[in-house]
Amino acid sequence: MNRTNNRIQNERPLKKGHFSKVSTAYSFLSSRHGPVPDVFIDQIITLYRQAGWWKSPDAERDHVRRIIAGSHCFLVALENDELVGMGRVISDGESDAYIQDVTVKTTCRKKGIGTQIVKRLVKRIEADGLKWIGLIAERNTHAFYERIGFKKMPDSIPLLIEIP
User: Fold this and answer.
1) Within-domain flag for 20
2) pLDDT (mean) for 117-139
3) What is the pTM of this model?
4) Which residues pair with 17 in a beta bridge?
5) Taking all residues of the chain, what is their mean pLDDT, rounded to a whole number?
6) Distance in angstroms (rounded) separating the CA atoms of residues 138 and 77
7) Is residue 119 assigned to a domain?
8) What residues make up the domain containing 59?
9) CATH number of domain containing 89
10) How far is it, in rounded angstroms, from Cα 99 to Cα 94?
11) With 0-12 CB in 10 A as exposed, 13-18 as middle and 19+ as buried, what is 40?
């Protein structure tokens, strides 16, 4: 990987022995600067479904827009104008923050995109003055987060209540 400005150049194999440079750009989405384009909203819905977080076929664009608007920040990774990864932070803006919904398109994994998403979210949270950052590592992803610096919380167990 080569770094240039706010982009990371990844080498992607085209054919055996041939590589092309693919540039990954990272951008925070905000509804304060106008509506997020439908094409990005649709790609976010696709990422949520690919991750197994949304099973309903009737996900609405307005629902995703409310998720973006209600987040402390929402970061996307783009390659050639295609959304290939995302992550977001929920927070009260004063005491603590939680990273969630970090995922990368299956065909784009193992290139450092997820690591960059988490590192950029942490940097943003720190810049906003928050010092306590938590997350729930699902499906055996704890090793990924530990490599970035997260540690298991002693005497803590994540709990959930689902309301039908």
Assistant:
1) no
2) 95
3) 0.84
4) none
5) 86
6) 21
7) yes
8) 26-148
9) 3.40.630.30
10) 15
11) buried
φ and ψ at residue 37, rounded to 5 degrees: -60, 145
How far apart (Å, rounded) are the C-alpha atoms in residues 36 and 30?
A: 7
Beta strands in the chain (DSSP E): 2-4, 7-15, 18-29, 73-79, 82-91, 96-104, 132-135
The predicted-structure confidence for 63-89, as pLDDT tens digits, reads as follows 999 999 999 999 999 999 899 999 999
Dist CA 76 CA 40 (whole Å): 9
- Choose among 30, 122, 25, 35: nearest CA to 83: 25
pLDDT tens digit string along 5-23?
A: 344 444 444 444 444 567 9
| Residue 129 placed within a domain | yes
Residue found by looking up tokens 């590589």 in the block: 19
Structural tokens at position 161? 């209540």
Domain count for the chain, please give it: 1
In a domain, 137, yes or no: yes
Q: Which of 137, 139, 129, 140 is nearest to 153 (CA)?
A: 137
